[in-house]
Amino acid sequence: MQTNVRYVHALGPAALTRFYDPAIRLLFREEAFRSQLVANLELAPGQRVLDVGCGTGTLAVLAQQRCPGVEVHAVDGDAEVLALARAKAARVGAGVRFERAMAWALPYPDGTFDRVVSSLMFHHLAADDKRRTAEEILRVLRPGGALLLADFGSPRSAPGRAAVRALRWFDRIAHRHDDALARRFDDNLADRLPEVLTGAGFRDVAEIDRIGTAIMPIATVRGHKRADAPQA
Ligand SMILES: C[S@@+](CC[C@H](N)C(=O)[O-])C[C@H]1O[C@@H](n2cnc3c(N)ncnc32)[C@H](O)[C@@H]1O
């Protein structure tokens, strides 16, 4: 892991990464959320799809299993979580191509992917990193291609708001030397991810799905790269 960049691991402290899968299963209605997200990708054989911030690889593996004719690529910045993802894919024989990369420096030529998906990753990024990651995703999408961004939205229940207060308190302590990182949830909690995508150059940006979970809702925002965008 590079030490000169802002980075938040899957569950915050790196030592908790091995508990990521059970935690997500318990807290976030994982099957329903991932199944719906893969359906919303509207995959078709022959397409190339990229999962950015793939974590333990559950979504990338599911996409490959649901649509075997699709070429699935997945990146994450953390070598430890990628090792878990590679082992998971190998266990079920899913041919996902994993790479280690930062979300704002994707190792692919312009226009490579028909679809890009990113789930539960954007809230790990400070505001300016969200912006440059969205721009980088736009670069690797083909003209007319789509990004599906699934991440936390504003909670509407009292327990949800209490959970958010606790999370923000934790972040203020954990990132007390980096105000931008301590405020990484702000865009999510104000439901501003559509604006982030529009600001980066995406077209027809809209929230297409929202599911409630034990803590915060997960909203899926879709945006497109202009069909007449120049190809490199
Ligand atoms: C909460 S996990 C989500 C994992 C997976 N997408 C999922 O749906 O379960 C966030 C992931 O984003 C990765 N991540 C955080 N910041 C990143 C960055 N700047 N570039 C690449 N990956 C990043 C973390 O290592 C972690 O695996």
**H and E string:** HHEHEHEEHEHHHHEE
Helix amount = 25-40%
CATH-defined fold name: Rossmann fold
Q: What share of residues are in beta strands? A: 15-25%
Rg, please? 17 Å
Query: CA-to-CA gap between the ends?
Result: 31 Å
CATH architecture, by name, is 3-Layer(aba) Sandwich
User: What is the overall shape?
Assistant: globular
Average pLDDT, to the nearest integer? 94
Ligand kinds: S-adenosylmethionine
Secondary-structure class:
alpha/beta
Give the biggest beta sheet: 7 strands, mixed
Q: Helical region count?
A: 9
Low-confidence stretches: none
The CATH class: Alpha Beta
Q: How many runs of DSSP E, i.e. beta strands?
A: 7
What is the total domain count?
1
Across the major sheet, the strand order is: 3-2-1-4-5-7-6
Could you explain how this protein is built, in words?
The chain has helices at 20-27, 30-41, 58-66, 79-92, 127-140, 158-174, 179-182, 186-189, 193-200, and strands at 48-52, 71-76, 97-100, 113-119, 141-152, 203-211, 218-224. Strand 6 (203-211) and strand 7 form a beta hairpin. The chain has a seven-stranded mixed sheet with strand order 3-2-1-4-5-7-6, sandwiched between helices. 39% of the residues lie in helices and 22% in strands. Helix 5 (127-140) crosses helix 9 (193-200). The two termini are 31 Å apart. The protein is built from nine helices and seven strands. It has one domain (14-154, 187-224): Rossmann fold. It is of the alpha/beta class and 232 residues long. S-adenosylmethionine (SAM) binds next to helix 3.
